[in-house]
Amino acid sequence: DDFRGYCGTGKYPLIKTMKSELADYMVELVYEGPYETPRGGAAAEERDPDEVVCEDGDAHVSFFRDRKDCSMYYVCQGAVKHHKPCPSGLVFNENENVCDWPENVEECPSTAK
To answer: Is 95 left (phi over 0), alpha (psi -120 to 50) or beta?
Structure first.
């Protein structure tokens, strides 16, 4: 970009052109969930023992199998929890931190959902 205006079109012609072309450009932001809300007070005491709680304060990444559905798993990025699916027919293997064949995961019988 001509940041000094030597070419006779004024300063920053490339950036100005991009700005004018993208002036009305809008991106629809759609989030399909899941929506996780931190619990406090009495709700925290009634917590499901199988529920994954991401409590690590730093940005450490860890993986946990969904105890209710072996074909799903959680990724914890610090205190932020993401619920993810395995590809069809696979279950989450916590020992390897990968989606794996059901026969390789003792805790998940061959009844992958």
So the answer is: alpha
